[in-house]
Write a structure and sequence with these properties.
With about 200 residues, this protein is of the alpha+beta class. Helix content is about 30%, strand content about 30%. It contains six helices and seven strands; from the N terminus they run E-H-H-H-H-E-E-E-H-E-H-E-E. Strands 1-2-3-4-5-7-6 form a seven-stranded mixed beta sheet, sandwiched between helices. The longest helix has 15 residues, at about 125-135.
Length: about 200
């Protein structure tokens, strides 16, 4: 992040603060742990996660991906929650607010990932529950996301209250270079306002 990157104003800070070991990061916080976030991304892609990258993925490219998100975080257009385990970043998820005039109620859940060494501990489920609360604190009650069809996450999202919209075949190249379908989900949080 450069010195002329705008600092997040108090108006864009959400009221929601997750319980440890989850942490809502500011852009400055994320910038301070870019290499850790990059290592998490690299490990997940190397483990086969379909999150927008094809192997081989360099550490520089992984770090650059997170660096490219800092401006959106600084201006309150995107938010990041991480999970820590033994002082390491074990998982991450982002909430990206719809910028359109007709979408002030909508956001995308993006880049949910849990380090392969920290799976099956409930981290992904905890991150998803925190994202719901964060979204509601920001007035966003319609969440959308997509995931590689057949990926382990496809089975997680319905258990977190997401409804399957459908499948788009040959949507993107997976980490190993083959075309994968993607499954689209949504969640309406209006019936869950009491969780905020």
């Amino acid at each position: 992040m450069t010195e002329d990157t705008p600092k997040r104003s108090e108006q864009t800070m959400p009221q929601f603060i997750p319980d440890a070991p989850l942490h809502l990061l500011t852009a400055e916080d994320a910038n301070a742990v870019l290499s850790d976030l990059g290592a998490l991304l690299k490990n997940c892609v190397e483990d086969g996660a379909g999150i927008g990258f094809i192997l081989p993925l360099s550490s520089e490219k992984a770090d650059q991906f997170w660096r490219s998100r800092l401006d959106d975080m600084a201006r309150g257009a995107a938010y990041m929650i991480i999970a820590r385990e033994e002082n390491n970043i074990a998982g991450v998820v982002m909430l990206c607010l719809a910028p359109q005039d007709n979408g002030p109620h909508r956001a995308e859940v993006a880049k949910l990932m849990v380090h392969p060494d920290h799976r099956r501990k409930g981290i992904a489920r905890n991150l998803m529950a925190a994202i719901d609360k964060l979204a509601l604190s920001l007035g966003r009650w319609l969440l959308v996301l997509d995931t590689v069809t057949g990926d382990r996450a496809e089975h997680l999202y319905p258990t977190c209250g997401y409804q399957k919209v459908g499948v788009i075949p040959d949507y993107a190249y997976g980490s190993h270079g083959d075309l994968d379908a993607t499954t689209v989900f949504y969640k309406d949080l209006r019936s869950s306002r009491e969780i905020g």
